[in-house]
Design goal:
The N and C termini lie far apart (about 80 Å). The protein has helices at about 10-20, 25-40, 60-70, 70-75, 75-115, 120-160, 175-210, 215-230, 230-280, 285-310, 315-325, 330-340. α2 (about 25-40) crosses α5 (about 75-115), α6 (about 120-160) packs antiparallel against α7 and α9 packs antiparallel against α10. The chain is mainly α and about 375 residues long. The longest helix has about 50 residues, at about 230-280.
């Protein structure tokens, strides 16, 4: 029988305990932290903030504030615009690159949890094709999300601006308030919808792509048929996962804060001693001393991030294991991978029999 959303918690916990502690292997923890961070598994549920700025008496001066305060900006505005465009293109390129890396790492994390072994190089060679197919799906989903927000949220805002509601907000105060509340709720609903699509893709479509070598569109076509047949089961899974994610965020957040505070004590003492020794030696803040301080801070931040990722490793393993054990009874190839049939018993050997006795010689005469 398929496991319920609650029943899948216990085997996922046992799986994470066996993979991480029986035996404990520091190298595996480091690789899982690396893979989980790049796959986006360390991120928890978060919110998105948006600001709607209505026109005000100060808006007429906003266009002249920067040129008035910084006249060199107006003189070099073409170069500044070109720099902004270049930085925007570089940012988009990096976002696309990391999206591709995250797509491949998602399959490596799936293989690592199923096999209880994490091998990054081998997994990258094996899963580049699957990762590229997931990457195409992610690009399409992102574009659909942005276009939906632009049309459903940006369209009403442009309409209100076109008819002049923002020019005289007091005359349309009720419409602006109700419309703003409706747009905020619509925006949050869109974000929630696409977040659920993203979660179900990585939890239920990725295993199908990994084990049956299909693309994300075919995986979603099959998943939709299962969703229609078991709506309550999958709805309970999403609800349970939100509860687990909130609990994990609290527990691991507290653990991370405690670890960082404990690390700040020795790093702070070393920094304080270095400053006092430098003052005693007559050193002042120069390019060299500032460079040393910046390098020291970068090393400290890198160590803090590394420790935080190590602390998050149990969460990195548990949540994929939770989705795997929930989905396995509903996806036979995954169930067969988790519980392979026992090896066939060798054929039974015939019982040993003593060799036959030599014939008895007949008596003579």
């Amino acid at each position: 029988m398929p496991l319920s959303a609650v029943d899948a918690v216990s085997p996922a916990l046992q799986h994470a305990q066996q993979q991480l502690l029986k035996p404990f292997r520091f190298g595996q923890w480091v690789r899982l932290a690396f893979v989980g961070a790049l796959a986006g598994e360390t991120a928890s549920f978060g919110g998105c903030n948006t600001n709607f700025n209505a026109s005000s008496p100060h808006n007429s001066r906003s266009t002249t504030f920067f040129p008035a305060q910084f006249p060199q900006i107006g003189a070099h505005s073409p170069k500044l615009i070109a720099l902004i465009v270049v930085l925007a293109l570089v940012g988009i390129g990096l976002a696309v690159l990391f999206m591709y890396i995250a797509s491949v790492m998602r399959f490596i994390l799936f293989d690592s949890v199923v096999s209880k072994e994490c091998h990054v190089r081998e997994g990258w060679r094996r899963r580049k094709h699957n990762g590229f197919q997931l990457f195409l799906w992610q690009i399409l989903l992102t574009l659909i999300c942005l276009v939906s927000i632009a049309i459903l949220v940006g369209g009403p805002v442009l309409f209100a601006w076109a008819v002049g509601w923002f020019n005289s907000p007091r005359q349309h105060l009720v419409a602006l308030i109700l419309g703003g509340i409706g747009l905020v709720l619509l925006f949050l609903g869109l974000i929630l919808f696409f977040a659920i699509v993203q979660v179900m893709t990585k939890d239920f479509v990725v295993p199908q792509m990994a084990l049956e070598q299909i693309d994300a569109f075919e995986g979603w076509r099959r998943l939709l048929a299962q969703l229609n047949a078991e709506k309550l089961g999958y709805a309970a899974y999403i609800g349970m996962k939100i509860v687990l994610a909130i609990g994990a965020a609290i527990v691991f957040g507290i653990a991370t804060v405690v670890a960082i505070v404990l690390l700040l004590i020795p790093f702070g003492l070393v920094g304080l001693i270095a400053v006092l020794v430098g003052k005693a030696m007559g050193l002042v803040w120069s390019f060299g001393t500032i460079t040393v301080a910046v390098v020291y801070c970068c090393i400290a931040v890198a160590i803090f991030i590394f420790v935080a990722l190590l602390i998050a490793v149990p969460k990195i393993v548990f949540f994929p294991a939770y989705s795997i054990y929930f989905f396995a009874p509903r996806f036979p190839p995954l169930a067969a991978l988790l519980s392979p049939p026992p090896p066939a018993a060798p054929p039974a050997e015939p019982p040993w029999e003593p060799p036959p006795l030599p014939p008895t010689p007949e008596p003579i005469g």
